[in-house]
Design a protein that fits this description.
By secondary structure, this protein is of the alpha+beta class. The protein has 1 helix and 4 strands, in the order βαβββ. Strands 1, 2, 3 and 4 form a 4-stranded antiparallel beta sheet that branches. It is globular and about 35 Å long. The model has no long low-confidence stretch (mean pLDDT 88).
Length: 59
């Protein structure tokens, strides 16, 4: 099963971009679109999936 990580700390789209960039350098890939939850104090969220080198893409 794939390891997933949810970014929930972003208050602005720019914060989300910065957090995603930091995590992609650590081996995480974007697994969902950006979610905006208006009632949340940190409304911008995204799901990431860890890049597992053991998984191969089949063509």
């Amino acid at each position: 099963m794939a390891q997933l990580k949810k970014i929930t700390k972003a208050r602005t789209p720019r914060d989300l971009e910065r957090l995603v960039a930091d995590d992609t350098e650590r081996g995480w890939n974007v697994a969902s679109r950006m979610n905006y939850i208006s009632q949340d104090p940190r409304p911008f969220q995204m799901l990431l999936k860890f890049n597992n080198e053991n998984e191969r893409v089949r063509l």
